Protein 1
Amino acid sequence: MSGENPASTTEYIQHHLQNLVYGKLPAGFERHTENGLEVLGADTWTMAHGASEAAAMGFMAVHVDSMAWSIGLGVLFCWLFRRAAVRATTGVPSGMLNFIEMIVEFIDGSVKDSFHGRNKMVAPLALTIFVWIFLMNLMDLLPVDLVPKLMGLAGVGYQKIVPSTDPNITMGMALGVFILMIYYNIKIKGTGFIKELTMHPFNHWAFIPINLFMELVGLLAKPFSLGLRLFGNMYAGEMIFILIAMMFAAGAGTGLVFGGLNAQLFGAETNGAFWLVIFVLVCGVCWMNLKGKISTGRTVLLTLGLLTIGGGVFALGGGLMQWGWAIFHILVITLQAFIFMVLTIVYLSMAHEEDH
Amino acid sequence: MNINLTLFGQMVTFAIFVWFCMKFVWPVIIGAMEERQQKIADGLDAADRAMRDLEAAKNEATDQMKEAKQEAAGIVDQANKRANQIVDEAKQQAVAEGDRLKVAAEAEIEQEINRAKEELRSKVAGLALAGAEKILEASIDDKANRALVDKLATQL
């Protein structure tokens, strides 16, 4: 929120990119606590306070926020679709059920298009991947500051609400798919899989090392391309939201009355509350206009006035950009979920086909 | 980019959700959808069949109507013919009757004439005799003259 000077800008970005981490601090780690410096006597499992502690935890750590949002959204997916499944009848479907069936039909079509083997797992897998990743990506459309700020008020220091901007999450899913690929490659092809790795593309024993190298690289590239593509796209999207939010904040700093009045009323740190008031007022004005209480001309004037007080035209510009990017991002999040799903189907389909 | 235990956490979660979806979501929804698809297909089939039946029934009705019309037209024709025939017959009968009546009348008239002639002849003989008697004023042998006069009368 406070994007007035470079230091706090960096801080703002770093704060946004820091997960909430629970992990093992190694023995001998020097911890900064309220009681001063504290040297840990033994390995300690604890919540990390800040990026340095999270970094010190290394591999033995869990991103609590990523896991929580990921599981929560997964449960939401299961709940929604289970409810639809329970209600599914052969009669006329309606409302939510229609929507769910549309998704199921879409997935079914995609699977039938590219997967020709016989496997009861691929379609549900594709459905889970598509909807779950879509939901995780969808969190990107929530205002970047909303949840972290609220969680901050509740005493939680860090919160990344888009699990798919966490490489652990995307790579976790990609590795899950990779394990399935290997499993079905071996199950369907047996020794043919080894032959595939060693005798392609040059079918001669002398080329085995070269073949093995090429095929292994090709094989290992699949989970990485799968996981990192999703991560990269979502991370970049999130980053742009953060940057626009900073611009928004910087623009707000130019508000006519903002600097003085806000500092007077709330102090520099709580300008979020000030914006909330402005936001509510603007919403109220628009609502009154919708209800026909005030004319459109007056509405525009009042809104502009409020914006001038609250954050100037830059803030409006920032808001519009945020909005525009969010609309564009709807495409990205759907597309990325779709690509992840399609590639999963294609990879599994390749694992099921004898001929390379 | 820090890879940590979250990776495995996500893998396990992923597996659980996929399992759940495979067990409790996908088969149920797809089953219901396929069943409904079947139902709709059957319904459409039935509708098609009904349409065809309707078409056939319509054709049949049209055919029957046509047949009935033809039949009716035939009957009317026949009736007309019969009527004409009856009228003709009646006409012929009437003409024949008229002819017969005419012939009878003519015969009667002839008869009448003959009788009148006969009567006149007989009367004429008497009159001639009376006249002759008057003229001669003498008694003439009635018997001898009668034969004469009768001979005269037949020559009339």
Protein 2
Amino acid sequence: MRIRLELYASLMGYLPAGSDRHASTCDLPDGSTAHVLLDRYGVPRDKAHLVLRNGVFLHQEQRDAQPLADGDVIAVWPPVAGG
Amino acid sequence: MAWTRKILRVDLNNGTCTAEALNMAWAKDYLGQRGLATKYLSEEVDPKCDALGPDNKLIMTTGPLTGTMASTGGRYSVVTKSPLTGLVACSNSGGFIGAEMKNAGWDMIIFEGKSAQPVYLYVENDTAELRPADDLWGKSVWEADELLHKKHQDPLLRVACIGRAAEQGCLYSAVVNDLHRAAGRSGVGTVMASKNLKAVAIRGTKGVGNIRDPQGFMAAVNAGKQVLADNAVTGQGLPTYGTQVLMNVINGIGAMPTRNMREVQFDGASKISGEAMHEPRKSDGKPNLTTNAGCFGCTIACGRISTVDRGHFSVENKPEYWGNSGGLEYEAAWALGSDTGVDDLDAITYVNFLCNEDGMDPISFGATVAAAMELFQEGAITTEHTGGIDLSFDRADTLVKLAELTAKGEGFGKDIGLGSKRLCEKYGRPELSMTVKSQEFPAYDPRGIQGMGLAYATSNRGACHLRGYTVASEVLGIPVKTDPLATEGKAELVKAFQDATAAVDSSGLCVFTTFAWSMENIAPQVDAACDGDWSVDKMLEVGERIWNLERDFNMRAGMTADQDTLPKRLLKDAATVGPAKGRVNDLDKMLPEYYALRGWTADGQITPETRTRFRL
């Protein structure tokens, strides 16, 4: 299945060379989770504070347990805030 | 103590400046800054008065920790009755003037009446006097600031000033201090202009030494600073990306108000984001962001200092805008960008400069332009009204032109200066105004963040994110993650954020500390500085008392509980994309519980029991 990973803020450095501003696309085996995806790109799990699957927040346990689906967009931020 | 226990009362009718003692009984109930100044306003001003008449008063106020060694202890507020909302206004700013005022020996400056001629207030420690400002009137904030520094030959003079927008009656004019910081919301600058008061220039060299327990204070302050440094948000995220890091986050969850809040995602978000501000430009290889900047005593430093590409159409042949100046924060970038559909980073940075230069709230300005663009699209406004300007969404040249006109009160800029509500009413389509209690929304769509709908509807100064920032919990997971699409538990969450924020806003500290600090970190600093008991419970009690006092002022001003609502668009028109697709804001599911938690009646009235509890 094909997954689009988007990395923001200080995590952008984990994108492979040649990626566009925030995103990279990769193929993963069926049943892969968000953590499998993060491991593929070498993103430390403890730096992945906000993980959105198609815009919906994934809790820690879901990042290990919830299988992704073809076409999913996973967007990840370190701890951030504003106002 | 921490309070100086001194107020400066400035009678603009007679041109006198008089020192008086701070009411310490009130200080023990309302702490300082937002709470204490609102108490003075509530006691001294008829809430039904004309906000732009001589009976209104304008209060510049510090908190007990302003000017101390506490991190972010440089905040001050401007409190008055708002001409935009007709309700209480309290606009908070950083920079340096708050600390300067405190170092000059004043907790608060109360302006009353109206001067016959333009004047400015000059304060040097105990000396205070009104001086003629005929040469400053008609000048921008930046020009007036420079003239005052030349006049007084003092580079360390701190200045808070209004620009031409306020003089021309723009209803969301700000009081700008230190060139780039602003008491921005609710038109506090317009009130200042109505009093013929152009500026306040302060030099204070006395220090703030009146700390109750100096050793305990420094221990609490140092512990607090360590928490800020160790926290990933306040130690790394905010200094590096500023509040603008939220642009992609909020867009990602489908809560980005776009094109006058018709849509909830903006396809140009990444082009105007905090990350984009770091990217080198093709033209000169320099990024938009030059550096970050901190206010007095701040160890976070979220401020942005930026440049506009010299070749960009907005600054072509305008070398005065080629240098570094105050850059985009998230709210400004949203209002000037997403809400108008403009994805040109240089254009919105330039317009942000203009908002600083002439003292306009960029949120209300951008949101009013967005409303005008929808009115134009609907045919309610035509080029005959605008003097030939095409108000189509997405047009950066239109945004720039309207900013230049509104800053000077010229042409169609006069109409933009009315704010969204009055503009939409004037052109016969009031339902297109995205406001609560006449104040424009900030950058979070309440269809995608349900708690913010309740926070907006019940905010005591109209639509505002800084009265109860449940985004912290609902989106960012601070202090705990809650579901942004759920309504359960949000009444309690909103009340907790509102009360805590009211207390922080009364202390002299910046609310951004609360991304890392809880009241457990703040109360010990206040307690060591101030006489009396300032436990966590006391701070929260004071916050709740302030909230009720503000509500009481508004009710006496004529506000009714049926104004605790949202525009129909947000209650009836469901989001069409993103995680909130199909959702409206379910305010009706949260509001009754909120009233009950507040100790108010089912129709939003403060009960006698609640009045007694808070000694209102």
